[in-house]
């Protein structure tokens, strides 16, 4: 609340400061004041149409409101990427929203653009892998999951996904390595469905190597 008050007071002196108004919008958003946030972002865009962060913030906020706002949200996010191609946030929002809508080709492109900027960001690698798995692009999924594993070697979800995808593609050396690591780190028990699935894939992989 104090930060909000400071930003609001500052805007009384500099009412056309788009950066400050965007920050204020983000504060409103965090406080759950969505209407005020959208109003602030729209004002920032109006006052400084070339300020990419305002477009990105408006697009992200609108996207949260559901399908009815998606057309405008997508346009705002695309404009943000046009104005500032090295701004990762709008690519991430686009990727996540496209994935939710099962627009996998668009989601994949957006994740690729985001990863060009942040190649080691695990959340992006995981998101790109999920889209690749849904699209049955197992080679790409293995590549993303392998990179994610390097960043978070103890993430059992990554290990399981990597092992199962590699096993399906008959890349048994990768599958065995990932699933053995999964077994060790997850303290596997036969009662767990996911773990049982991993046991089966692990046994199959070890037999084939």
Helix and strand succession?
HHHHHHHHHHHH
Structural class: mainly alpha
Give the mean pLDDT: 90
Residue fraction in strands:
under 5%
Shape: elongated
Query: Runs with pLDDT <50, length 5+?
Result: none
Number of helices: 12
Number of strands: 0
- Describe the largest sheet: none
Helix content: over 70%
Specify Rg, calculated over alpha carbons.
22 Å
The N- to C-terminal Cα distance equals 60 Å
Describe the protein's topology:
Blueprint: H1 2-13, H2 18-30, H3 34-47, H4 52-63, H5 70-83, H6 88-100, H7 104-117, H8 122-134, H9 138-151, H10 156-168, H11 172-186, H12 193-208
Helix pairs in contact: 1-2, 2-3, 2-4, 3-4, 4-5, 4-6, 5-6, 6-7, 6-8, 7-8, 8-9, 9-10, 10-11, 10-12, 11-12
Features:
mainly alpha; elongated; 78% helix; 209 residues
Short description:
It contains twelve helices and no strands. The protein has 209 residues and is mostly helical.
Structural commentary:
- It is a single chain.
- With 209 residues, the chain is an all-alpha fold.
- It is 78% helix and 0% strand.
- It is built from 12 helices and no strands.
- α3 (34-47) runs antiparallel to α4 (52-63).
- The termini are far apart.
- The model has no long low-confidence stretch (mean pLDDT 90).
């Amino acid at each position: 609340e104090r930060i909000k008050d400071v930003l609001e007071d500052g805007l009384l002196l500099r009412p056309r400061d788009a950066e400050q108004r965007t920050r204020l919008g983000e504060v409103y958003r965090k406080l759950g004041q969505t209407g005020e946030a959208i109003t602030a972002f729209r004002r920032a865009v109006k006052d400084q149409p070339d300020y990419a962060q305002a477009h990105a913030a408006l697009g992200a906020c609108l996207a949260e409101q559901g399908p009815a706002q998606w057309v405008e949200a997508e346009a705002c996010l695309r404009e943000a990427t046009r104005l500032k191609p090295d701004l990762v946030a709008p690519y991430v929002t686009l990727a996540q929203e496209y994935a939710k809508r099962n627009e996998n080709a668009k989601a994949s492109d957006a994740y690729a653009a985001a990863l060009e900027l942040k190649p080691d960001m695990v959340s992006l690698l995981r998101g790109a892998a999920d889209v690749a798995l849904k699209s049955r692009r197992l080679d790409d999924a293995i590549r993303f999951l392998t990179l994610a594993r390097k960043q978070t070697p103890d993430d059992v979800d990554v290990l399981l996904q990597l092992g199962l995808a590699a096993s399906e593609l008959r890349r048994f050396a990768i599958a065995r390595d990932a699933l053995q690591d999964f077994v060790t780190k997850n303290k596997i028990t036969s009662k767990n469905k996911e773990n049982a699935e991993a046991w089966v894939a692990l046994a199959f992989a070890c037999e084939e190597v």
